[in-house]
Design goal:
alpha+beta, nine-stranded mixed sheet, 25% strand, binds adenosine monophosphate, binds magnesium ion
Length: 340
């Protein structure tokens, strides 16, 4: 063997050892409690830890901007502005712009002004109650995303209207964290923001991430999604709800048309796409819209896929997920309807 061949062989062995090491690499990990949820972040590569520290700091900053209860937050300032314009940060303006855009696209199924109604049902305090119809009708007068005016970084809402970015915040944060990973040269990371998944690249060995989808009727996982470099966000009635004196179940997602907790026939809605913010906004809206309207929306919008579980247990996926969706365990034998 000549010296040239030896050099090539050395290079090949080094490459095998190197990729082997990366495939078995241990990720940096960080657990964060923020935005009312437990977040689990893991990132591979030499800058993983540094990137996750920066990510945790950023989450705290965003929470500080968007909290509805923190007196120092920008949303708090908007909600007490008495109709006067309030200048907000670029992040708040962008998250609000996204929310308003998806409100338009979904015919108002997503509406960042439902907050006073949500509070009346007790979802902000835990003092749950079924409001009377008159009270709801009075509150609905101030509900409507069309009342929110956003011009550059300036937000104006009429006195009596309040906004809340709860339906888009975690997903939007996922996009911001994806940028932080890129800035730090992290190409393989899994960011679980309380069920809002932001997958950066693939696993270190190049295979896709496997994301478990929660069974909305139980504690386990009913399916896995194989994902690379995208977001997956779930909205579900099981996440937060109360049982009323009438024995009915009331969930934390409000139908802006009625001011009542949604009954759309869906138990959960998962949206997969490039942007965490878009997926988060759409998952909430789709949960409100129900199977038929959500399917029509999907047919008219090319940039997302979805997994829907109906209240009757039926499972629906859009055709773009046919190869990446896998039923798990006791659910393996179930029929899945493909939306085309
Ligand atoms: P998500 O878990 O992303 O579906 O967001 C649910 C949260 O968004 C709720 O806890 C409320 O704070 C808020 N919310 C509830 N209903 C709506 C709605 N129709 N449009 C916008 N935000 C909503
Ligand atoms: Mg959402």
């Amino acid at each position: 063997m000549n010296i040239f061949m030896k050099k090539i062989l050395c290079f090949v062995f080094a490459a095998i050892i190197f990729t082997g090491c990366t495939a078995n690499a241990v990720p940096a990990e960080k657990n964060v409690f923020a935005m009312d949820t437990y977040m689990k972040l893991s990132a591979y590569g030499e800058n993983g830890e540094k990137a996750l520290n920066a990510a945790a700091e950023k989450i705290a900053v965003l929470e500080g901007l968007w909290s509805v209860t923190d007196e120092g937050s920008e949303i708090y300032a908007v909600n007490r502005s008495g109709g006067k314009p309030v200048t907000v940060s670029p992040e708040t303006a962008a998250a609000l712009a996204l929310s308003l855009q998806i409100s338009e696209v979904t015919g108002g199924a997503l509406d960042c002004t439902v907050y006073p109604v949500l509070a009346e049902w007790g979802f902000t305090t835990g003092k749950y109650q079924i409001p009377d119809e008159e009270r709801l009708a009075a509150l609905l007068e101030n509900i409507g995303y069309e009342n929110v005016s956003l011009s550059g970084h300036t937000v104006t809402v009429p006195d009596g209207t309040q906004i809340d970015l709860g339906a888009v915040g975690k997903g939007f944060a996922g996009d911001v964290l994806a940028e932080i990973m890129a800035e730090n040269g992290v190409t393989s990371a899994l960011l679980d923001l309380g069920g809002n998944i932001q997958a950066i690249g693939a696993k270190p060995d190049g295979s896709p991430w496997r994301i478990g989808l929660r069974d909305p009727f139980g504690e386990g996982i009913f399916a896995a999604l194989e994902l690379t470099d995208c977001a997956a966000v779930t909205s579900g009635g099981y996440e937060r709800y109360f049982i009323g004196e009438d024995g009915e179940r009331y969930c934390h997602i409000i139908d802006p048309a009625s001011g009542k907790p949604v009954r759309s026939g869906l138990a959960s809605a998962t949206v997969v796409g490039d942007s965490g913010g878009l997926c988060d906004a759409l998952s909430t809206a789709i949960f409100v819209m129900g199977l038929e309207n959500a399917s029509d929306l999907w047919r008219s919008q090319p940039d997302f896929e979805m997994v829907l579980v109906a209240e009757d247990g039926e499972i629906y996926i859009t055709e773009g997920l046919e190869n990446s969706f896998h039923l798990m365990g006791e659910f393996s034998a179930k029929t899945v309807t493909i939306i085309r």
